[in-house]
Amino acid sequence: MGARVLRFVLPALVRLMAAGCAVAAAAEPPALAPLDLIEIADGVYVHEGKQESWGATTHGDVANLGFIVGSRCVAVIDSGGSPAIGVALRAAVERTTPTPICYVINTHTHPDHVFGNVAFTGMDPPPQFVGHARLAAALAARAPFYLNALERDLGIAADPALIVFPGVPVADTLELDLGERVLSLRAWPTAHTDNDLTVFDERTGTLFASDLLFVGHIPVIDGRLTGWLSVMQEMVKMRPARVVPGHGGVSADWPGIMAPQEQYLRAILDQTREAIRNRVTIGEAVERVANDAATEWLLAEQFHRRNVTAAYAELEWED
């Protein structure tokens, strides 16, 4: 089945009602751009986020989001980087199918993937929120910082109700039956974060890899570099027909699509280890390590030095 592009426009004024109270998005513009959806396989829809920084200019729309339609219900996979993006995604689902939403699956803790959750909490009945067994703890630890960033960058009042915690934890694997369609969820060891989750649609062979795979956008280390490389070696054994990365375009080139990410992460690994052996300080390493490997990636200025800092801290004390 060829990909179909669908466009959905929000009403002129976006106002989110959640948990019986209004959440005012003061810095949101009068209208958001249309939400583009691609039907990448039968009943599998993806919205590709912008390859830009999370913030006011993008309204938090920087991560890939999706939903999968079964005969009984729909599973949403990540909800976007702001309440308004969540509203747009929910509207897109409801305009695409009358089938009710029964699950909202968060693939990890980062705000560009979870801040749309609140748009789904006021549904009747509400969906179940699903995530890695460590997701709740990660959200709780980061909530004050995420809410401050939401207010600072998007002008949305810092309300604790905007953090929606998972009610269904995945410690290893879990199957969700949507009706004539089974999704296989897998919780991974610490890699991009310590709470990465993938979603595999068995009917179409579609893998939502989320931020375990970056395409175009520079990979971001917020977990363990060595762990991420190990997880990628395990992921190579999977045989999806197509893969949805957390950022960048959907691809059927598996595992080839993962090669640039592996090359970049291995360059950081090898050069950071060499810098540590040569007693290079962390400050010096941040300015030197893997600069050539970073040049082909979008947003390298924002994230490459942070990646080297994280790698140095991880590798400094390894045997």
What does this structure look like?
- The protein is α/β, with parallel strands linked by helices and 319 residues long.
- Helices cover 30% and strands 24% of the residues.
- It has helices spanning 83-96, 111-114, 135-154, 225-235, 259-277, 282-288, 291-294, 300-315, and strands at residues 4-8, 16-18, 21-23, 35-41, 44-47, 65-69, 74-77, 101-105, 128-132, 168-170, 173-177, 182-187, 197-201, 206-214, 242-247.
- The chain is globular.
- The termini are far apart.
- Residues 8-30 have low confidence and may be disordered.
What is shown here, in short?
The chain is built from eight helices and 15 strands. By secondary structure, the protein is an alpha/beta fold.
Distance between the termini: 51 Å
Integer-rounded radius of gyration: 19 Å
How do the SSEs run, as a string of H and E? EEEEEEEHEHEHEEEEEHEHHHH
Number of strands: 15
The residue ranges in which pLDDT falls below 50 over 5 or more consecutive positions are 8-30
Number of helices: 8
Detail the topology: elements first, then pairings:
Elements: E1 4-8, E2 16-18, E3 21-23, E4 35-41, E5 44-47, E6 65-69, E7 74-77, H1 83-96, E8 101-105, H2 111-114, E9 128-132, H3 135-154, E10 168-170, E11 173-177, E12 182-187, E13 197-201, E14 206-214, H4 225-235, E15 242-247, H5 259-277, H6 282-288, H7 291-294, H8 300-315
Parallel strand pairs: 7-8, 8-9, 9-10, 14-15
Antiparallel strand pairs: 1-4, 2-3, 4-5, 5-6, 6-7, 11-12, 12-13, 13-14
Helix pairs in contact: 4-5, 5-8, 6-8
